[in-house]
Write a structure and sequence with these properties.
Elements: H1 2-5, H2 11-33, E1 48-51, H3 53-63, H4 65-86, E2 91-102, E3 109-124, H5 128-194, H6 200-235, E4 242-245, H7 258-268, H8 270-290, E5 296-307, H9 314-318, E6 343-353, H10 361-428, H11 433-468, H12 495-505
Helix pairs in contact: 3-5, 4-5, 5-6, 5-8, 5-11, 7-10, 8-10, 10-11, 10-12
Length: about 500
């Protein structure tokens, strides 16, 4: 009531405190944005300069909050191991009491003091000790696999965000090339208008095309900046960071072994290993529940001193004096107050505790523990099915995306040649500006489709690595890794050169 009256639970006071904390955090962020020094443990890290995908992963593992939180669970696992081992170690308890009874009988006042030490060494606890230690080890293993799972999730998220930013950057370049082509068409059309070989309508159409391309460029530049902010957020660093992506978005075909990929998934995936540890924990829980009505045996020793005197007080304990009239059986006297003595008690031996009937409480706990064990077994089978599905889907997507990349590479070559021919025909007067605009649109779309296909292929490889459960740890099992990095065919490549490049990129045995 006093705390309530003093306003300790005033909601407005709590709100002001939290608002003050938020204001301090904001000031720290502003100092970091202006380049001023700030405490590293209170603000996010600011990075700058070129950034590769491997560097991005390393930064994320250092600053990502999910990974940091999972690492702290390793400390929790160590604590559980210590706690489990403690069930098999001896315990020592000290007890002390001082009681005063006010009575209305012949004795108006009575004080009693007791001091005692109890030592206990468990000899048998119905199997609880072994189950607790085994469960602690299983939990420690589970925590390590959860850390692997968190790291792999960061690996997947960072690489996906990095490739998304690369795709956005390539699409910006495509729009910039399209703007140059549109600007060139406008200049050629204006020149033809001056010489009387083009109409005013052709100039307007070229201007409309240039405006549309510029609007598309603005939109793609905004998408690129948004992709960078998402990447920085995934890294766990400050949004004020300035980075440059220095990895290309290239096509590197691989040939994966489906059988080895599935085997690796069954052996390596963290969620499957976590499922195994959860089953072991459930088994240990069953053992612990069954120990509820089993006997427990202890080796016990006890030492106790008690003072049952009528008029003794704390000063008799602090300053004991010898009692000439009354001997002290325990060796300590408090003769200053009535000659009463401290009594000593010592005992030791084997103690057996057997709750042979607890009202069916143990039976209910055992039924519940066994049901939880069956649930974990079913959950593991479900996770296995999920792993098989994810591996199969990733393999199918990898094959289809590879074919799509190759087809789009040929479309880029064709679109480049079509634009070249349209521009030549427009200069010679055998084609209109609409033909050139159509060719430009086709080339821009072909470039966009190609980079989107390469992005999909790279993301599919990441998804397959995540499905196998070895992303960032081991490469995907492959039959034979071949292929070279490819980029969209440059302007001027003929059909024979294009076919030679495609044949060279086809892996053996396909």
């Amino acid at each position: 009531m006093l705390m309530l009256a003093s306003g300790c639970f005033d909601q407005e006071k709590v709100a002001r405190k939290f608002q003050s904390n938020r204001q301090q955090r904001y000031e720290l962020l502003k100092q970091t944005e202006k380049g001023k020094a700030a405490q590293a443990d209170q603000v996010d890290e600011v990075i700058s300069g070129p950034l590769s995908v491997d560097d991005a992963v390393e930064l994320a593992l250092r600053y990502n909050k999910d990974v940091q939180a999972t690492k702290l669970r390793l400390i929790e696992a160590k604590g559980q191991v210590v706690e489990a081992v403690a069930t098999a170690l001896p315990t020592a308890n000290f007890t002390g009491s001082a009681l005063r009874n006010d009575n209305t009988g012949l004795i108006a006042q009575k004080e009693t003091y007791e001091l005692g030490v109890l030592l206990r060494q468990p000899l048998y606890l119905g199997g609880v000790v072994g189950a607790a230690i085994d469960a602690a080890r299983a939990f420690s293993y589970q925590t390590r696999q959860e850390l692997r799972q968190a790291i792999q999730a960061v690996q997947l998220g960072v690489r996906q965000r990095y490739y998304s930013a690369l795709l956005a950057a390539e699409l910006v370049k495509v729009s910039q090339e399209a703007r140059r082509d549109a600007q060139k068409l406008l200049e050629d059309t204006q020149a033809k208008l001056r010489y009387g070989t083009a109409a005013r309508f052709d100039v307007l159409r070229a201007q409309v095309r240039l405006s549309a391309v510029e609007a598309e460029l603005i939109q793609r530049q905004n998408e690129y900046q948004l992709a960078l902010t998402q990447l920085l957020n995934e890294l766990g660093v400050s949004q004020t960071s300035k980075i440059e992506l220095n990895n290309p978005l290239s096509f590197e075909p691989i040939q994966v072994s489906p059988e080895e990929s599935l085997r690796a998934a069954m052996m390596e995936r963290p969620d499957l290993l976590i499922g195994e540890s959860l089953i072991q924990l459930a088994r240990d829980n069953v053992i612990g529940a069954e120990a509820g009505n089993r006997p427990k045996i202890y080796l016990q020793g006890q030492y106790q001193r008690s003072y049952p005197g009528f008029s003794a007080n704390f000063s008799s304990l602090a300053s004991p004096k010898g009692d000439e009239e009354t001997p002290d059986p325990g060796g300590v006297s408090s003769g200053a107050f009535g000659g009463k003595t401290w009594e000593r008690t010592m005992n030791g031996g084997i103690v057996v505790e057997w709750p042979f009937f607890d009202g069916m409480l143990t039976t209910g706990r055992v039924i519940k523990a066994k049901a939880l064990l069956q649930q974990q077994q079913v959950a593991l089978r479900k996770t296995e099915q999920k792993a098989q599905l994810e591996v199969s889907q990733a393999l199918l997507s990898l094959e289809s995306n590879e074919k799509f990349v190759r087809s789009q590479s040929g479309n880029v070559s064709n679109a480049q040649e079509a634009l070249r021919l349209a521009e030549v025909a427009f200069k010679e007067g055998t084609a209109t500006s609409l033909d050139v605009i159509s060719a430009e649109l086709a080339l821009s779309q072909a470039h966009s489709d190609y980079y989107q296909a390469v992005y999909n292929y790279q993301v599919t490889i990441l998804n397959l690595s995540a499905a196998v459960g070895t992303i960032g740890e081991k490469p995907i099992p492959q039959v034979e890794q071949q292929g070279e990095k490819t980029t969209p065919p440059s302007e001027g490549d003929n059909q024979e050169e294009k076919q030679l490049k495609e044949d060279k990129q086809v892996p053996k045995g396909s």
